[in-house]
Amino acid sequence: MKRVLVLGGGFAGVEAAIYLRKKKLDVTLVSDRDYFYIYPTSIWIPTGEVTKEDVSVPLAKLAKNHGFELIVDPVAELLASEKKVTLSSGRVLDDYRYIVVALGQDKMKHKGMENTLSICGKPEEATALYEKLDALVLKGEGKIAMGFGGNPKDTSAVRGGPAFEVLFNVDTYLKKKGVRKNFELTFFAPMHKPGMKMGEKALVMMDKMFGMMNIHKQVGSKITNFVEDGIEFEDGTKVESDLTMFISAGTGHSIIADSGLPLSDAGFVVTNEYNEIEGFEGIYAIGDSASLMGPEWRAKQGHVAEVMAKNVAVNIFNDIENIDAKESYEEHLNILCVMDTGNGAAFVYRSEKGGKMIPMPIVGHWMKKGWGWYCRHSKLGNIPRIPGM
Ligand SMILES: Cc1cc2nc3c(=O)[nH]c(=O)nc-3n(C[C@H](O)[C@H](O)[C@H](O)COP(=O)(O)OP(=O)(O)OC[C@H]3O[C@@H](n4cnc5c(N)ncnc54)[C@H](O)[C@@H]3O)c2cc1C
Predict the structure, then answer these.
(1) Distance of CA 316 to the CA centre of its chain
(2) What CA–CA distance (Å, rounded) separates 210 from 116?
(3) Distance, CA of 82 to chain centre
(4) What's residue 336's pLDDT?
């Protein structure tokens, strides 16, 4: 019997496969795409600073360098009670002692969403954003609106940071092109205090940044419809837009919905702090697929997904070796982000002690670039890992 089956080749799945291999376990990773996508640095695709290829790492290279088996074939069904996985090709995988579910999340659906593009959706959408922005720049004028939505059932699945980052980058880009004065930029979100997870101090600073960049704000009213030329809100207002970037909040993955695993109200897999699932021995859920426990401000993030993945590698190894010890993710819960503006960044950190946002002009942008390089090469095994990163 083979040892471990990892479902999903994102931050959680790839990290789990790498660390399970460090424990010398047999690992098979199943992915619907043939590359690992570095979402945090994809924010530069819309402004043409990088391409989709620049932020993608071939899974075949990762598999070769770390010695795990790779199957590129979407998971069509997971029958958790039988530890049986059926792939789109019809192939059945049912001889694994352990399964690690790392399929990420789906996005909430909103009326008229086909009129929007997202930086957090399919990677192709980031390239489409670039093409649409480029066409507007060629035209020399336009209205651009960017924002994010909420999930009342699970605030940890709300992803706002990349909306701010892309908007600030677009502002910088338009200034570089000398056409900023011909563009109207608007940030929108249905909640009264979007970005509140970062803490009050950060919100004050964000407002200052919006003011300095002349970015309009439309917040505090529910989005009712996305239309071809803008966004309509419950309070009757409409933001006109030639290009709408909208990050819908996350919801449970459709494969997980039918898996028989215990789910939260928002459709994420309910686990304990060791990412184990009650009643399903040998199955673990990690990363965005798992229902994140913790304080109100908690957020589904890449570094949390990686902590879960490393822990699960240890927990599976310890289970095999009958070692009575388990790793928990709880003490690693924080929000950590270098929020890029295209010409600098702000360091955002939130823990149970409160939140802080530290401006890092110029150097912050290059730090994030450096992290992207580190992420690619450390995952490939070309350079050693920095502890905690
Ligand atoms: C634009 C953006 C910027 C971000 N910036 C930051 C940041 O600065 N810091 C931070 O910590 N976090 C950041 N995040 C969040 C972070 O990227 C996520 O938390 C992280 O990707 C979660 O990892 P995951 O493996 O659980 O999910 P994903 O990375 O989404 O991986 C899921 C994988 O499963 C695969 N999959 C899906 N369905 C199937 C199927 N049916 N069969 C097989 N495979 C399937 C997908 O192809 C994907 O590779 C950002 C996210 C986005 C979108």
Answers:
(1) 25
(2) 22
(3) 30
(4) 87
